[in-house]
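Filed under: proteins

Residues; backbone shape codes:
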Amino acid sequence: MPVPPILVLTGATGVGKTRVATALAALAGIEIVSADSRQVYRGLDVGTAKPSAAERAAAPYHGLDLVAPAERYSAGRFARDAAGWIGDIAARGRLPVVVGGTGFYLRALFEGLFDEPPLEPGRRQRLRDALGALPEADLSRWARRLDPAFRGGGGRQRAARAVEVALLSGRALSALQAAAKRPSGLVPWYVVLALPRPALAARIAERAQRMLDAGLVAEVRSVLAAGVAPDAPGLTGVGYREVVAHLSGALAAAELPEAIAAATRRYAKRQETWFRHQLAGAVLTLDAAAAPEALAREVLARYRAAGT
């Protein structure tokens, strides 16, 4: 059975995607595919803003709690998993809705990825060690020099990946992707939730404080006590790396709220840039200041009116 265009609810971190998705669940029989590269990690709940028990009760979720914090979960794996979830949801006669702000996950799902050329393991590890010592801003600069199509987004991991592939293969990551796409055949119908920068900054600051009040530091301390390395994949995200710095003595407790909020604002800015330039397909931008219920009604009405 052919799957119609997939409703994708995206936007910068903190803009309110989960609230709108929950309101949408009250209007239609939906199942949600999470496109959030942080919510895949088990045991990392507070700092990833995972849906609450009530939100999960409103609609089935796919893509949460898939791997341990020490494991890597790639965009390619997400694309394969998500395509399967979407097919199963459609076969059940329900509406699949992709919700999340990880742009590279969305690109992998709807535009496909490339077959990586062989990269010599020893050189690769030495390069990774060297790149790991560079600040994120320097990584991004190198990524742009080696791959003119690099537009940021995805943090230091994405930038390091672009540098690694370019130096070890001799070809830009974007060129390899363009030459060897393997799309899923799914077509996106994007809804981007947006807020003016000051309003989003206020939401981000409130959320950072809520996470700390909800036990973010204790969550990270527990994960580290279980033997997870401080630089494990699950702990490199915004919020977690600041708490790791605090627990190592490099950041005072009083500085945590603003440190997390500032890092989140920078990440949100990169996401907004990515959404402006990288989304391929139909894109509807909505003001996230409206009530989630009103936004959900408009999203569903516009999606249906588009003939999807």
Q: What stands out?
A: Residues 256-278 form the longest helix (23 residues). The chain has two domains: 6-113+181-305, 121-179.
